[in-house]
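For the sake of transparency, this paper describes our internal protein records without simplification. Because each token names a local backbone shape, the row as a whole describes the fold. One such record is reproduced below, unchanged from the form in which we store it.
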Amino acid sequence: MVTPAELIRSRGLNVTLYNLPASIELVEVAPRDGFQSIVEPLPTSSKIDVIEALIAAGLKRIEIGSFVSPKAIPQMADTGELVRYFKDRPDVRFSALVPNLRGANMALEAGIKELVYVISVSLTHNMKNVRQTHEQSLAGLAEIAEQVRQSTLSGRPTMRLDLGTCFDCPFDGLIKCSEVANLLSRSLELMEGIDVEIALCDTTGRASPAQVGQYFAQLTRQFTSENITWAFHGHDTYGMGVANAMFAIQNGATAIDAAAAGLGGCPFAPGATGNTATEDLLYAFNGGGIETGVDLMKLLAAADLIAALPGGQTASHMRSVPRSRIAA
């Protein structure tokens, strides 16, 4: 039998084949990035049912919500209630997005130990998304980082920096890797002494696998530290979500964001569709022998719950495949 490597070489292609990692962390973002895309507030009980189903499927990392003003995003008004409900789940790593110091304090007081902060590499997108210049966003990051350093919670809280529009901006077009590196360098200086995960985000879903691989390879070489880990957040707008994730994990990413049923989409990225479906990624990882600890059939059941929610836009390849064929 001809191996994939032999087939590629037989076609005269000059490519480098990378070994896949033995395991990868799936970060489920439907309860925050996904639910946030639904305009009408969902019942808290429905959110709890979905999160319970995701945990039952084996997901160990879940972005549970965001501590933002309910006037700005009414859908996230019950994040504190969700955190309290799930506070006795030590086997699950919950994170929450915080837009400012007030949100960070609320999250820490609720017991969240992983704070997620977002800055877009594109200044135009950052202004439209959070209405701040890079200097203002970095000042906010500095305040939150200092609060994390001073936190008295048992086990020092960690931070995650989501760098939006790392590859493409709906307003400015292609984003150069040097632009990402510049903003990342300034950000890391402010988070010195903190364990941090850097997420390169394909906000529009327009990145190509080669671009994702190149950026991860370059940035992970440039910013090497035992305090830094790497993640990829992708969208499937151009059908590249799974392929982009595969190139990310081959070049340094140890965690991949996804949303069951492909729920979500950035309102400030015109044309962007939902997040890459967790079940699509899981199928690809399973096929590569990559361990995630997640059960595909149970995950599909959770995705069905999400797809049944009113007002959500979903997109999943695996949900369209008859379950009998998947089980076989």
